[in-house]
Design a protein that fits this description.
Largest sheet: 3 strands, antiparallel
Keywords: Metal-binding, Zinc, Zinc-finger
Number of helices: 2
Number of domains: 2
Pfam families: Zn_ribbon_GRF
Protein name: GRF-type domain-containing protein
Helix content: 40-55%
Bound molecules: zinc ion
Radius of gyration: 25 Å
InterPro entries: Znf_GRF
GO molecular function: zinc ion binding
Length: 112
């Protein structure tokens, strides 16, 4: 597919909200509609015109929703684990940096 036909497809599926702005095209993550795409007004909730519309008129097959919800749960667990490991690595890096600084100070003292 050429780039211009992708552009025209995007224009075909693009939506404008009641404000006349390009609507956001997002993915729902609720258990009932996981993975389903929708459009909404790009403004924050308090100033939004309230425009909101499903991209597709029907829900995904139940099996697809189950798989998406299961994978999303696993992804969330992985993110928590990744953040825990990142904190450990950050702590190790800081300790290593502190050790090197102490070593550097000792070497300066010895060579003085
Ligand atoms: Zn709007």
């Amino acid at each position: 597919m050429s780039e211009s036909s992708i552009d025209s497809l995007e224009k075909l599926y693009a939506r404008r909200c009641h404000c006349g702005l390009n609507a956001l095209n997002l993915t729902a993550w609720t258990d009932l509609n996981a993975g389903r795409r929708f459009y909404k007004c790009p403004r924050p909730k308090v100033t939004s015109c309230g425009y909101w519309e499903w991209q597709d008129k029907q829900q995904l097959p139940p099996r697809a929703v189950t798989v998406i919800v299961d994978l999303k749960g696993k992804l969330d667990v992985m993110k928590v684990e990744r953040n825990k490991l990142k904190r450990i690595v950050d702590g190790m890096e800081k300790a290593e940096r502190d050790n090197l600084e102490i070593l550097f100070e000792e070497m300066k003292f010895i060579s003085a």
